[in-house]
Batch of 2 targets.
Target 1
Amino acid sequence: MGPRADEDRDEDRDEDRDEDLDRDRGEGRDASVDWAERRRIAEQGRGDRAWSLWGPYLSERQWGTVREDYSPCGNAWAALTHEDARSRAYRWGEDGLAGICDERGNLCLALALWNGRDRILKERLFGLTNQEGNHGEDVKEVYHYLDAVPSHAYLKMLYRYPQAAFPYADLVDENGRRGREQPEYEIEETGVFDGDRFFDVTVEYAKADADDVHAVITALNRGPEPADLHLVPQLWFRNTWSWEAGQARPRIARAPDGGAVCTHERLGPYRLAFDGAPDLLFCENDTNLRLHGGQPDAAGPFKDGLHAAIVDGDPASVRRDAGTKLGLHYALRLAPGETARIRLRLSAGLRAQAVDDGSLVRRRVAEADAFYEELQDGIASADSRAIFRQAAAGLIWSKQLYSYDVRRWLEGDPLQPPPPRGRAGGRNGQWRHFAAADVLSMPDTWEYPWFAAWDLAFHCLPLALLDPDFAKKQLLLLTREWYMHPNGQLPAYEWEFGDANPPVHAWAAYRVFEIDRDRRGGRGDLAFLEGVFHKLLINFSWWVNRKDAQGRNVFQGGFLGLDNVGVFDRSRPPPGFGVVHQADGTAWMAMYALNMMRIALELALHNDVYESTASKFFEHFLLIAEAMTDMGGSGGDGQGYGLWDEIDEFYYDEVDIPGGGMLPLRVRSMVGLVPLFAVEVIEPSVLHRLPDFARRLNWVLENRPHLARLVSRWTEGGVKDRKLLSLLRGHRMKALLRRMLDEAEFLSPYGVRSLSKVHRDAPYVLNELGASFTVRYDPADSTSNMFGGNSNWRGPVWMPMNFLIVEALRRFHTYYGDDFLVEYPTGSGAMLTLSAIADSLEDRLIALFAKDGTGRRPAFGTRPPIAPAPGAEEALLFHEFFDGDTGRGLGAAHQTGWTALIINLLRDRARPR
């Protein structure tokens, strides 16, 4: 059985999907509303209708990215700045405020604002660069993704715009004065929102059809005095004509009968309709050569024409007939509490169309309500349902178009100056095959407007609940030949594709398969699973061949996504230090081997050719387990040395030092908890149905008993005679859990910390080879500048790792059952099952976002409150990580990527046990 083309797989699923919808609808239900969104998702999956043609794919930040960096020094933040962005054309994408675009990014629709006081037109979000922020890059705006459905038939976003001049300089200067020991200076602290002197600007999109999009922009004066507001919806074409000869320039022109007509040779004609009588301002999406090209007499208008016309009052900076960028200028004055509303419609074709009278938006909202009602079945709390829905909204809004052709980027464009010397051997120089032009799930639309391989894997679990086909295609996409390196490596992230992220792709693929199978009534998508499995065979081989430096099944990998968790940068050990033997790197590979075995077993139930492959991964897992205990290769005679510290009863990294010795790095961190993740339970029915696999397992265990002793009591079946594969036998697991569940160490009120709290009063200090390093517990922002200092793995709570901990505990419980009890919390005297502990950890994680006894949400911390928006009193944020003591949200404030795993936790807690 081989992988089939996507269209063949979709055709096979057509009838199943329709049957699911008909069965779920039930009698007396209004299917036209209740199942409208699920039908759109099904139509998209079958290829019947391209609902994905338009979506929230427009980035919130294109400036400061690697792909726009053509500098000689590789400083992306300085190569194209926020100040440059309004007057320089982008090469690889576009950005805008609350915007959408087509899936190729040809035509973009977004909002610009001016309050009459700012020095620039607000066309994009502002934030600090990595060098400007005292804790790295950070967006300095207030906005919330309030609602969305997977087909993008309905989208809603809130932006809060101060009526005072935006505090650009104050934010830069004050953050520059603050050190790493101080918190970030946020826009709420500047005073620009005092007295509620701001506008709530809500942007909604509703599709009448796949290529017919309505937009509603609503502005409310929250302040106590009348205030001026310039609303400037913008429509423009991405610049595709300035890079090589022969590229036609598209056009947006005023229509004789009202509105505007857009023509593009690939996208086809589109028509823009709008209400009211705005001033139509046209310019070109071209770099202002007077500012950036040394050509003072260059003819405009340029990309910054709208800014110059509205803010600077220069009428010569725009045209009134046509261009590649159009602004609809509405000049308003709103009384206190007054609301203004503007309606637009962007539709395919040349025929004039009327804007929505409100009925379409109301219908799409009702359909969204029905979609989420079904997904939230069993979640009783209204607050939990709101958390679920806004997390889903942020995840959907974080779909972004990612365009980046590395070969073209390295070599330059024919119509532009050649790149600087040495560029070919610099960043991503070994990834010339990489050529992306795809919609990807991004970690955050401003701070991380680029994909990261392991982030995306976590994103796919909540995405699988919302839109399983999109989740599966995301996982497959990163294994395609224009992403995966010919040697089998998956690209990590654009700052360095060659870095190694934890190998969680196989885990995510199987979990998505399981979620999708549940949604499909037990019918799993074997073609997807087989397709991704074949590609991951190549990736697994890359790990074995490239990241096992000494061929002993002990793996490295460098920082492995955990940034500053190490004593030093594990990707680049200091002079004199040798290979770092990583407890997490090795455990991740053990988990990878078990994940691949699990997939092979699933496939073998339908095609017995995979039985031998499953047994191969079983044996590989055993060899890794042996290496973690016996790196010296003593053959299990007890004379070897491993990554488990018998005195501390914890896993540590070890580093080679001169003279042939190995130095354990005794930092109690998340690194030592990763071995918990390598666990698999095999049902006896699987062994019964796969006799060849069972026979091979028994041969290995009988002929290599020293391996069997390392991982589990294989001959002693667990609950229902299940078999356990794990790096941890009962004693070691309980030893790890004793530390992990200790509130004086890892266990916080809001989940498991990334570093033990014991290092607050007892920092780990290493003085070796003339170098000195210190690791101390930092529960909030990082106080070190390792990896830019914008994330911190030395104390905060991270959602993805906690999610894996919860899953591991549940899997262990299926083997050990209710008779296996662990003290929780450590020292409390209370004994709980592993399943009950998993429940409690889920509750702690959910508590990050839920209201506490005072009505505050811990994730919000003590930041100054801003008046709630009408209809969105519970506007939430989903941060990158959380204070290990207080739960306050930290890092990227809109990282609904992996923090959207809260959706899966809420669903899991709603299930009856």
Target 2
Amino acid sequence: MKNFYRKTLIAAFLIGSAATAFSQQMPPIPTDPDVRTGKLENGLTYYIRHNELPEKQADFYIAQKVGSILEEDNQRGLAHFLEHMCFNGTKNFPGNSLREYLESIGVKFGVNLNAYTSIDETVYNINDVPVIREGIIDSCLLILHDWADDLTLDPKEIDKERGVIHEEWRTRTGAMMRMYETAFPTIFAGSKYAYRLPIGTMEVVDNFPYQALRDYYEKWYRPDQQGIIVVGDVNVDQIEQKIKNLFGPIQMPANPAERVHYPVPDNKETIVSINKDKEQEINQVMVFHKHEPFPAEMKNTVGYLAYSFMDYAISHMLNARLQELLLTATPPFINAGAQDMDFILAKTKRAFTGVAICKEDGIESGLKALMREIERAHRFGFTASEYARAKADYLSNLENVYNERDKMKNNQFVAQYVSNFIDGEPIPSVEYKYTMMNQLVPNIPLESVNQLYQQQVSDTNRVVCLFCPDKEGMKYPTEESIRKVLAEVNAEKLEPYVDKTSDEPLMKEKPTGGKVTNTEKGPFESTILTLSNGVRVVLKPTNFKADEIRMQSFSAGGNSLFDDEDALQYAVLDEVVSLGGLGNFSAIDLQKILAGKVASASASVRTLTEAVNGSCAPKDLETMLQLTYLSFTAPRTDQAAFESFKNRLKAQLANQEANPNTALSDTITKVLYGDNPRAARIKADKVDQIDYGKVMEMYRDRFKDASDFTFIFVGNIDPATATPLIETYLGGLPSTGRKENFRDPKLDIRKGEWKNIFHKDLQTQKATVIIVESGTCEYTLKNKLMMSMLSQLLTMKYTETVREEAGASYGVSVQGNLSKYPKEEATLQIFFDTDPTKRADMSLLIDKGIEEFIAGGPKAEDLAKVKEYMLKTYEANQKENGYWMSLLYGSLWEGMDGRTGYTDLVNGITNADLQQFAKTLMAQKNRIEVSMTSGDTN
């Protein structure tokens, strides 16, 4: 057995061709026997699995090994355009009938029905399909078939979609996208990746001939590049036969084009790319150490599992070191991290990647600090204690997955099978991986991990990218100065990292605790315990997840009880309090002592409530309760960590105004809330006014009395074993019997009709429109349901009018909300980006949509679709811990029964009900429109 592990490790840390020689010696990873895989004679691959989470639902996918890398220069954008066209007409589903049909069975466009295009793949999904009739299954398979081989590509639909994609480009093109376009020709010099972002060029999108898209489709959408994936509550034998019958007749093209995987050239000298944009807020430096990926032919061997673990351990340990630097009084960067990953766009090259967000005057020093830690680990390796924590966390996560093996959802399996088809990732059973890794991980010596890191990081094949604000008066590094920094770090005398650890337990002594003084039935088959200190505890045991307990709490008050003049202090309270750690442990030491445990708890002071929320595995319930107890009784101060926070925050906010969305946010806040200090954003010149002592005083005030707290536990919690722990830690919380409630913070939305359209010069021409309708509304379940329906129905309407017919926006977001506290109120927010020349007309079209809704109500078929989706989601939610937590919180905090009569209420809401609901809201004439445009403001 030891010889087996030795061979496994040799293969794991030999990256590239040297490892191939070992491929025949490595035992293969067996495919999970519960997934049916196969390949048709025409080359099409399929994956089928029966799974009943959620019940009576299934996911249908088609993955294509086709992406923007396969485009020629005059085709840039066609792979992505083709993805859009799959929703605009097929042989068996002409026009919009594909979407119409799926939405009629509760499959919502954009939520359950979607796709994405990447560099090397295009993946289409139909999720959460209610497979309650065989005809639904047949229709979904037929849609996959049509996507694979029977698109209509109607010229009229193509021309309509040009506008939609142009608007997608407009929405997505921010500072980083523009800088990528300038950086990639340098980073990927000599490679096709230099000019292959999936969105393409608008010159191609606006002007390509119809035949060009059809030619691309016929060339690349073919069986040998396609994988069908069906996972859910289905009969595997039946699905397999249907796939064979439906997809088997699809013919491969004669003389198919070779599917090339394009290489990325190596470089001896470091490549440096310095990029600037007027709308960039932060200074980001990225360092890539390129290397060959793990050999594809060995991915299905045990050696790859060992390699993947060691890769995890390296990033785990190095990131922990970088986080320690962040909490020093004068941190060298605002944030930093490192991980081995694909080299940005390319899967044919990997890169150990370090990223640092730097201060405006500290780009070179931030780079040096990042490289110093990368080099320190390279010279001296990692320590045994660091490695022990990495192994503990890995095995703990592995155990969590193993414990949940019978509770896995369809989408978890689908993600594995897509990765297997596209990237050759292995798909063993959870049981196999758990058993194998528990044998393998303890036998992987630290020396092997350090040796792998030596393979990943070197002085050659290196790329450095800078992404900076284009700001007058700012001094930028040069290529020469960047190379000098790298050389200085290489020449610097470094000391090995010293890992400071402690054997001290999280709590040396247990608190005195209290007792349960009353037990009663709670809402939704829960149990309410009242403790001797006044704390209420609500228990809702479930079996939906084997390894999860959720905790949520509340106490009325929040920062509403603080004065407006202290708004700056409580705006940062949650983050500042967390800096110091708990009890005798700093924030860094706390992470170390919690290694291997699945437990977390965090305190927060919100507008109307204070809370400690958390989650844990059942075995770590006591740890979560200890963290909760310490959050009340022993918040820790750390002056150095606070100074670090201030330094990083000032640097982070220094260039905030460069982002045009800051101007938009400031304007909408001013229009909605006036000069209310509670709504003001934090600016760099205010950071030094944060008073650490004042913040901690406020925090202690909110948590010095637990007598009015309610704690809710949902999940795999055993009341018999949990109750003594709850009595000890929650029963031991301080109690003074204070009686209080929240105050109205007067964050009232301005009444009346207001419009603010302002001009702002933008690097990409765009107009952004936000419309807010508000008013009083009784807080009832029926009204909540009608607000949800109104939002969904308007979204459907605007998808049809603004996106599809006018081609004027990538999408219109409509979000409605009802709130009970501090007063009952409804808000409806509508948001979209568009061409500045179309802004005024689209705003009118938005208003017209609301007017038509009030006058005639929704289409009957659209209302039926929304109801179908809501009822399907409701049914699936019955086995979700989060759903029951939300129900209990709503019942106990807001007095809302969100479940009783739900189905009847949904089915009973009529067209007339929705018309009246919308009319009542709009009749209050509280309409605010804020538009930011790079065009005129007329």
